[in-house]
Amino acid sequence: MNIALNELEHVSLGVMAQVLLHTQALPLQVWRSAGQINQALGTAPRHAWIVRRWLAALSRAGALCEDAERLAWQGTPPKAAVENLPRLYAELGFPTSMAPLHSQVIDCLPGLLRDQLALAPLLLQTGDPVAVLGAYQHNLFTTAINQALAARAAEVSAHGDRLRVLELGAGAACTTHAVLAALQARKKSYRFTDISSLFSGAAQRQFRLEPGMHFGLLDLDRDFAQQGVEARSQDLVVAGNVLHNARDLPRSLGQIRACLRDGGSLLFSESIADNPAMLTFMHLLLSPPANAPLRGTDEAFMTPDAWGQALQSRGFQLLEVWPAATDPLAAAGQRLFHAIGVSR
């Protein structure tokens, strides 16, 4: 798996190099700053952080050298062997739809970065939107994370006659499936929420016969109580790869803590570092809307230590981060976090 992951990273670095070279944003033997590169590429301001992350990734890989904040190619730029994507995605356990989808996005990258095209409509042209937007979560690494999360969910005790579960940003229900399977024998009240009715509606059709299920909209950036989630009402909050979307993470963590009983569990998965493949694909969805303030930082993801500090400041105790850095599964950069609400 890790060999395929490393090869996919190299392909993605080649894609970045191809875009920068073919658009003349950074020609060979030319020194330019990140700002000049974005200007030459014609990058929309909201996507400028993506190109800066490309430059950081290429620098880490030794493809670029830096002098006084200016960058230039060092040696031969990496090649974009896009023809290898079907094999690599198959080896990593992704659906067969993933490689052609990524290839299509790669072909459109200059237009996407310039906001001449939008990623979401492009993705949705290819089929069922729930399946398309959930495809990148169907892989060996995310499956392992979801199974580990579900196993820990099964150990959470109920404060009453049934386990009360709130899932945030449940999306295409990849995490939901795993958790429901683990809780099959438990009496539960399971609230599936997402910011989009596209996902909550699909989940309602899919899980309508599952006992104890409830479905609704919930926005991480709004007051939970105003959205029908009572204080101290939940035994478990689940969030699969969604908390990085919070515009004000401390406030959102505070809302999650407020809805959990003391001793209740928060189980969530997150990436902890850039993924070069996703930087040429799904990470474009992380750019702010055109009329919204620009990102305050180029860093889309937080380290485990930063998560521990953020959780502690909002009344949580971090119990576990899984897998360990030495585990082969850690190479994908995803982690499972288990925290409990503590009284203050």
Automatic annotation (TrEMBL):
It comes from the Bacteria. Keywords: Methyltransferase, Transferase. GO terms for molecular function: methyltransferase activity. The keyword Transferase applies. Pfam families: Methyltransf_12 (PF08242). Residues 166-266 form the Methyltransferase type domain. One of its GO terms (biological process) is methylation. The keyword Iron does not apply. This is Methyltransferase domain-containing protein.
